[in-house]
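Structure tokens please, single chain.
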Amino acid sequence: MKLIAILLLILGLLGLLLSTAMFGDIGIAAAIGSITAILSGIGFLNINKKLRNN
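Here you go.
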């Protein structure tokens, strides 16, 4: 799960950087998708920490 979380964070940050180079609706959609990936990666990291504590 930690690998998935790290990959989501990396792809989300890369997508957020690339979305600044895009114009119009496509840039907004790419930014929303990358923010979603970042939030999912953070969620996976939190779940990974909670599962290791049990």
